[in-house]
Amino acid sequence: METVMINGGDEVYRNGVAGGVEDVYGEDGATEDQLVTPWTVSVASGYTLLRDPHHNKGLAFNEKERDAHYLRGLLPPSIVTQELQEKKLMHNFRQYQVPLQRYMAMMDLQERNERLFYKLLIDNVEELLPVVYTPTVGEACQKYGSIFRRPQGLYISLKEKGKVLEVLKNWPERSIQVIVVTDGERILGLGDLGCQGMGIPVGKLSLYTALGGVRPSACLPVTIDVGTNNEKLLNDEFYIGLKQKRATGQEYNELMEEFISAVKQNYGEKVLVQFEDFANHNAFELLAKYSQTHLVFNDDIQGTASVVLAGLLAALKLVGGTLADHKFLFLGAGEAGTGIAELIALEISRQTKAPVEETRKQIWLVDSKGLIVSSRKESLQHFKKPWAHEHEPVKELVDAVKEIKPTVLIGTSGVGKTFTKEVVEAMASFNEKPLILSLSNPTSHSECTAEEAYTWSEGRAIFASGSPFDPVMYDGKVFVPGQANNAYIFPGFGLGLIISGAIRVRDDMLLAASEALAAQVTQENYDKGLIYPPFSNIRKISAHIAAKVAAKVYELGEYLSDVFG
Ligand SMILES: NC(=O)C1=CN([C@@H]2O[C@H](COP(=O)(O)OP(=O)(O)OC[C@H]3O[C@@H](n4cnc5c(N)ncnc54)[C@H](OP(=O)(O)O)[C@@H]3O)[C@@H](O)[C@H]2O)C=CC1
Ligand SMILES: CC(=O)C(=O)O
Ligand SMILES: [Mg+2]
């Protein structure tokens, strides 16, 4: 490490040395305007530079850089372009047959050469998304302790209670724009994985960069560790978290409050906090508690709602009618289910001018106890109560399908294989084109597979799932399933909030994001039965979403201009 003495911070910017290496790609200058300890700045060079993932370029350092940064002799003579590095890595990566090995190879790359990691992810997004994200990230979280090498992100456990601000200051970056935080209690459909849920914020934030273009240094993954109720992990010698049962009530709330306050104090009003994979008993309360005073967003409730609404708006081109002409049935009445239901009801209300209390009546939900009906109202959790319509009790999904006769069936239960042959056949018996969304992740928890949806509906279903499925051949025709995943929304949505200086998230911004995404579905996509555009175009799609969201932020006046921010 070379320490450079400089007479004042201005020199740091002029020479562009704050990043250690001249930022020829212009990708990440988030640290450029941060204050350094007065008068000195440490610049990684030589051996240290090669081990600094933010600035390391490996064999891609050119002759000039090798001279300037004391790299002579530390690298073999050959200079390799980033394109060739990418080609070699993808070749090596494809040799791994086991998904978890692929995940570990990608994480190793992120730890070694961040630029190359993002180049790979951006250029090969359809191939790599299932590795750094669902489904493989789920398995990685389950085995996080065993595969743990270098820590990623910030761990805030009960041990740090009273010192959260100090912990934030340990993070090397100062200009944070987006935080994804989990407490690990509902990781995908895999349940309580405690501290090992860290894979989720890390994965989501890599998508903020690869899919949304937010600088990696502006992204902070956080795991709040209040213990775990997962006995298997508590008895696992490799478990990396606190070995105690989950703290609840006051102790939990105090840690979350301290975290949220420290974040605002340290990073300002405009930092976006994305809640991810909290259990619903905390998720709804945290969102309600902080959404009026902080820039917070719950991806599972709001991001999922926005992506599904986009798919439905697009699907109208295939199935006909307006949203108000359709009837919706959900399996699963938690964060995703009720979040989506509420946004659909809101959109129909906007379109028809009918009160939302009325438009909710065409949306039905089934939970683990059966159809949500008025006779159950007293015992229902608060977020289910608006959906308790007048009806006889119905226990089984298949009977609810036959009774309600929905045009759209949405799975948000976290339980695989619940859209049985009988359920799909029932949907296909009264719908020419049944719309079936199996949103639960990872793949093993999907309510049905793409093959099942197409086969059981005799090729008539319009199908999308939370985790990807390969195209299916049925009756001599190829069916391409879509991926209904909030990854279509949160990178662009978050980018829109960040670039506009937003300080609050509003439903109208979610609706704007849905409309922007639906508008990106092309005739070519529709011709293949797709209701989402392919991920290969995601950076453009995210930019489009961001622009619409930012415009809505300005329209609503929910931003702080730089003069005040
Ligand atoms: N594709 C995407 O973008 C997203 C997908 N998801 C996925 O959705 C799933 C659910 O997430 P989330 O809503 O946050 O979870 P929640 O725990 O909040 O909700 C799950 C709901 O499913 C119900 N349920 C559980 N088992 C059954 C069953 N056997 N039959 C009927 N209902 C059942 C629960 O019932 P009860 O209330 O009675 O316990 C609850 O209402 C997860 O797998 C997650 O990965 C989530 C967000 C985004
Ligand atoms: C996709 C996502 O956010 C989930 O499954 O929880
Ligand atoms: Mg999630």
TrEMBL record:
It holds the Pfam family Malic_M. The keyword Glycoprotein does not apply. GO terms for biological process: malate metabolic process. It catalyses: (S)-malate + NADP(+) = pyruvate + CO2 + NADPH; oxaloacetate + H(+) = pyruvate + CO2. Its cofactor is Mg(2+); Mn(2+). (S)-malate binds at R186, N441, N485. GO terms for cellular component: chloroplast. One of its GO terms (molecular function) is malate dehydrogenase (decarboxylating) (NADP+) activity. Divalent metal cations. Prefers magnesium or manganese. The active site is at Y133 (proton donor), K204 (proton acceptor). Residues 110-291 form the Malic enzyme N-terminal domain. InterPro entries: Aminoacid_DH-like_N_sf (IPR046346), Malic_enzyme_CS (IPR015884), Malic_N_dom (IPR012301), Malic_N_dom_sf (IPR037062), Malic_NAD-bd (IPR012302), Malic_OxRdtase (IPR001891), NAD(P)-bd_dom_sf (IPR036291). Residues 301-554 form the Malic enzyme NAD-binding domain. SMART domains: malic, Malic_M. PANTHER family: MALIC ENZYME-RELATED (PTHR23406), NADP-DEPENDENT MALIC ENZYME 3 (PTHR23406:SF64). Belongs to the malic enzymes family. This is Malic enzyme. It comes from Tripterygium wilfordii.
